[in-house]
Amino acid sequence: MAEAAAGGTLNRALSNVRGDFSLIASEEGTYSITLSFNPFRFKKHVMRIIFRMRKAVENSIWPLTPGICGGTCAAVAIRVLTAPQDSWWRSGSLAHLLWQWDNLFPWEKNLPTNVRVAWLSLLAGSIGLCGISFVQRTMLRMLLNYQGWMWLEHGQKPSILQKLWFVIVKVLSGGKPSLYNFQACLPTLPVAPLKSTCNKYLLSVKPLLSDDEYKTMEGHCKKFLANEGWKLQLFLQIRTLYTSSWLWDWWEKYVYLRGRAPIMVNSNYYIMDPLHTIICTNQAARAASLINESFKFKSLVDWETLDPVRLQKTIPWCMKQYERIFDTTRLPGKECDQIVHSEEVQKYVAVCRRGVWYQLYMSTRVGGEGGKMRPLKLHEIEQQIEYIIADADKNPAKDNECLAALTGWNRTRWAEAREEFFWEGVNKKSLRMIEKASFVMILEHRTPADKQAMAKTLIHGDGKTVWFDKSFNFFVFPDGKAGLNAEHSYADALTVAHMWEWVMTGERKESFEDKAREKNNHVVGYTEAMKNPPKVRISLPKRVVFELQDEAKKIIAEAYQANLTVLNDLDLDVLEFSDYGKGFMKKARISPDAYAQMVMQLSYYRDAGKFALTYEASVTRLFCMGRTETVRSLSVESRNFVETMLDPKATTKQKVDAMRAGEKKHTQLYKQAMTGGGVDRHLFGLYVASVGLGYDSEFLKSALKMPWTLSTSQTPQKQTNRWNPDKEDAIYVSPGGGFGPVADDGYGVSYMFPNDKEIFFHVSSKKSTGVTDTQRFIKNIKQSLADVKKVFEAHIADVEAEKAKKGK
After folding, report:
1. Which residues, 6 or more positions from 112, have their beta carbon under 8 angstroms from its beta carbon?
2. Phi/psi at 133 (nearest 5 deg)?
3. Within a 10 A sphere around the Cβ of 524, how many other Cβ atoms?
4. Is residue 560 within 8 Å of 405, Cβ to Cβ?
5. pLDDT band at 519 (very low <50, low <70, confident <90, very high)
């Protein structure tokens, strides 16, 4: 049996290379190897290599293009060939230098003189253009190291030098960049000064600790700085010299992949459909539309033609995370998982209905055997979905046959089950089909009763049909509503939300026959195809088969029961607060994000009677391979705001002043996090280095073990220019999404400002702790929002009255 397992491991390794190898091991320890050759796959592989080489060249010479380079080199060669012998072009100092180069290529001596001249001219032109491109990209990289523009106050005009900086960056950025053009120009994530990070950390925990606890922590910090701290800092600084990001792989491995807890609820997150309208009430049509638009977006990513994200249409963000949105899965390991991205461009979707899996190809062959492949038309996808729904409803899977339950289980247990039951034969092949799919489509047979039920379904499903390891799972419900569940390790929510927004804005404009909302319509071309059926026969989706023995079914049932325990413990709800939105906050001249964070500090204190270490996610994509940084929202200033708000003797002015001080501090912390001056990623890197180098740091262990009792994140509403959520498209606004609590006795809160008039909050907690209550926290949020508004309304009225008094 050991030999057979070893054969399976080697077989998997060889299959990952090209998939054309087969290694079979017998119980007796003998092996047989089969090597096959598929011309079609080989051609695709070669074309993909050529494409990558071409894009590598384009990215390396950008902002120049191959056309400009080729045209310029040809023009130089023609000019040299047609120039008189005694001209600068033929006999100048540069020409003499080129003839010296000619000696390096002895094979040229037998070529005609004009050919040698043309060759040297092309060589000189190429080297010159590469030099210009290198200087241009180096200058852009140096300019992008400047982040002073981030520190402009709201409404403050940039200085002349800052305006000049913007102009130069825009000029050096070229015309229309492709997806990854800016990657080589982005600065690397800096290692913040060690003393500065330690001081910021101490300041952030001061509102939480007693005087004695603070003195103890301060002592640990001083000891750390005096002993191992500088050595660990030096290690990180050296690491920046030979990596694109000193943090990227550590963060991915130690924060996500080495975690053994179930990723269902604990790591994966969800995004919801619009609440106030239904784009289409036909489940099959909606699913077809989402699949079709997703493959359009996938094509933009695969061919690197998606416009890179640029702040203020000028400053580029890192787009590295987009590489793995599609064709990606997380594979379980006994100690550490791994992210596997298929190098071959996949053109099929794994579809699940009632626990039954199907392979839905996005192309079909025209003209019989040997004919050309063409993409499926939109109405053909809808017909394929209709077949899946009908087929699965006739013969649904039993609970102990729902393999997806394993992906929501403990990671080590899932890895052991995968190795034992799915390492060979039809099980291996079927499992591989799901894992290599572009993404997963879940066709739900139950309609959620309300937004709370929908949110809970999207974050954990029924515990047995969501493939939590895939990069993302689309959900489509019988009423046409939709949403998605995304795995977190390969990319952050901002990236997936961009894809979701692009897909949604495209489908409602291009996909359906009847553009009116809430119509039980079909996709474009469906009605005509039903009246005049095409002669081309489309292959039906393949039902995926697993051969599950009793022991395997027992393990699946055990995983399902464990998942039920987790999902039943989750207390999740969505608050749609429509009394006011960011419009009022702007009128009060307060940053909406800071306003929401101050409200949550007040709400949590009312809920728990104490303050909590608070996590707010920020992005560091101004840097190459940047992901996130933590904004420590609890500060001395925010604590003072809460205490002032709850002080019955405090005046309106004192409360407003406390709010403005808290907002100013929060905005400062957020900007520091975005520009590489945050605390937590630096401490994390120092801790990883300390473990690797064998240092036992009391300070780092104490700093990192403090739980994030209140974990928060703001979801952006608009990342594309394909719609206007503030005006004509307001009805299509999505409430965003949410995630589970980070600490067992804490809350997870995601919030969104969809427009000027309302706010969405997604609040989660665990029922089993006995100290948290989602409905109670939501009630406190509503109360805090009302109280803060009342304070500012009174303040605004006082200011206006004072102005009127002075006017008289």
Report:
1. none
2. -65, -40
3. 19
4. yes
5. low
Alpha carbon distance 498, 493 (integer Å): 8
User: What is the rounded (10 degree) CA torsion for 164, 166, 171, 177?
Assistant: 170
Taking a C-beta distance cutoff of 8 angstroms, is the pair 403, 417 a contact?
no
Helix (H, G, I), strand (E, B) or coil at 751: strand
Query: Given pLDDT bands bounded at 50, 70 and 90, which one contains residue 509?
Result: confident
pLDDT at position 346 is 78
Q: If you search the block for the tokens 């392979």, which residue do you land on?
A: 359
pLDDT at residue number 369: 62
For residue 675, give the amino acid letter. T
**What is the pLDDT at residue 17?**
40
Q: Which contiguous run of DSSP H or E holds residue 592?
A: helix 592-608
Average pLDDT in the chain: 89
CA distance linking residue 546 with residue 542, whole number of Å: 13
Give me the DSSP letters along 191-250.
Answer: ---HHHHHHHHHHHHTTTS-HHHHHHHHHHHHHHHHTTHHHHHHHHHHHHHHSS-SSHHH
Residues classed as catalytic: 488
pLDDT in tens, 11-22: 443 343 444 555
What type of residue sits at position 347?
K
Residue 160: band (very low, low, confident or very high) from pLDDT cuts 50, 70, 90: very high
The DSSP H or E segment spanning 160 is: helix 160-172
pLDDT digits (tens, 9 = 90+) for 273-310: 999 888 899 999 999 999 999 999 999 999 999 999 99
pLDDT at site 530: 87
Query: What phi and psi values does residue 358 have, to the nearest 5 degrees?
Result: -135, 150
Helices 636-645, 774-807: axis angle to 10 degrees equals 80
Rounded to a whole number of angstroms, the distance between the first and last alpha carbons of the chain is 96
How far apart are alpha carbons 750 and 740 in whole angstroms? 10
Q: Is 712 helix (H, G, I), strand (E, B) or coil?
A: strand
Determine how many CB atoms are found less than 10 A away from the CB of residue 679.
25
Bridge-based pairing of strands 570-577 and 269-272 is unpaired
User: And the tokens for 721?
Assistant: 């220019």
Determine the pLDDT at residue 7.
40
How is 725-782 classified by DSSP, letter by letter? TTTTTGGG----EEE--SSTTSEEEEEE--SSS-EEEEEEEEGGGSS--HHHHHHHHH
pLDDT at residue 61 in the model: 73
Rounded distance between C-alpha atoms, residue 186 and residue 624, angstroms:
5
Neighbours of 1 (CB within 10 A): 7
To 10 degrees, what angle do helices 411-421 and 550-569 make? 160
Task: Report if pTM > 0.85.
Answer: yes
What CA–CA distance (Å, rounded) separates 162 from 139?
A: 16
Strand partners, 357: 352
User: What span, in angstroms and rounded, lies between the C-alpha atoms of 733 and 274?
Assistant: 5
**Residue 115: pLDDT over 80:** no
Q: How far is residue 174 from each of residues 162, 367, 695, 736, measured CA to CA in Å?
A: 19, 45, 48, 34
